Predict the structure.
Amino acid sequence: MRPYIREEKDFSFSEVPENTSFEAGYLTTVNSGWRSIRPVISAAKCVGCEQCYLYCPDGVISIKDGKAVIDYDFCKGCGICAKICKIQAIEMEAECK
Amino acid sequence: MSKKFLSGNEAFAEGIRLARPQVISAYPITPQTIVVERLSEMVEDGSLSAEYVHVESEHSALSCAIGASAAGARAFTATSSQGLLYMAECLYYAAGGRFPIVMMNADRSTALPWNIYGDQRDSLSQLDSGWIQSYAENAQEALDLALMSYKIAEDKRVQTPYMANLDGFVLTHTYETVDIPARGQADKFLPPYETDNRIDFDSPKNMAFSAGPDTNYIFKYKEHKGILAAAEVITETEKEFAEIFGRHYTGLTENYRTEDAEYIIVTLGSIAGLCRETADKLRENGVKAGVVRIRYMRPFPNKEIADVLRNVKAYAVLEKDISFGNEGTVFTNVNSALKKAGVDVKGYNFIGGLGGRNISAGDIENIYTSIAKGTESVNFIGIGGEDNGK
């Protein structure tokens, strides 16, 4: 299961854990505001080899119905997926055209 | 149980072997080196089953121990002086992350001038880093603290890293006969480490994250409560230790002939023995002298200090430390304890032993004599010069 955006709330004193560890993937805000270019996957070209999934430093790529899918809420636009794709199925496009 | 003739470092290593850490990461530095040499030999000969990690610096040594603790392992490291200062950044990570790592620190002077001998400026400069801090007097206590330290640090109420301080050379390199507990008894006393605060595939966690202004304050408060809770856990642990091993310890402080004392020296570490001998000698001459040895600087024994000094005519704080531009840090802490408790007695600070300078029996006798007469607020033992420290 991929992380999903939870409702942001104020944590009460007792809900704050003793140590700095908490349920993984508890995300309340998107984190991609500074992205200037975004990777776009061509579903027609993608063969589902999972190379981009393995290399993505933010873990935002998943495989759905045999094709790579990007979670743009957390993609930083680094372009590593486009570089690693051996069949050029991913292209970087400007956010502001 | 067996008896061996050991140095402070070797005794501490024996205590750590009994505590069965699973990961040891350390970088050698005088006068700590022997403790990690002995531990590496124990790993090599199979008498200690641990991953021994050779790291390239003290910063890495503690980082590695933090990683190991975050994987659920019992972790150990050791350092001294500049090494402790180099790992200072990581001290706060370990404490804030509530990783119950144990570290032995061989108390040694800090540069410049470069010097390898003992004083306590290194560890006392890190009082605010969030670590429990103990100060051993002799090799037997060092061994026993090594074994007790994990039980205290890992307690669910505490979850705080533990820095066990041994005076450089005076304690780390001097030999005495030490009782070594039997393995079976040690295992009964200290079960394996268990925690939810770890990386776990079945229950994935975000670890060592950032926390903004809304919750950061609460984390820090809980960290403070954790180290305060150590006071009670130390007492419980020492009680259980006495039941199993027959050796008794006295919590955050140890008092000597204080019941009717008029003049008390408050000190810490290995110099306490000479203070007790001097107090005995002065009592033969009718001076009601006593000694308080601070065993733990964090959590600080506020109540114990106030209770024992409440009825004295004067007290001295003897320490191998100075907070430049003010006074000795132990003195500051002791005075705060008294102020909070409404105790108003005359107190004086005696700074000595910096860079390994000897403190003699005569020096200690002079402390008792001068606090009876009244002296400067902060005194520098045997410094010489035109004003002789005035």
The longest strand of chain B covers residues 2-7.
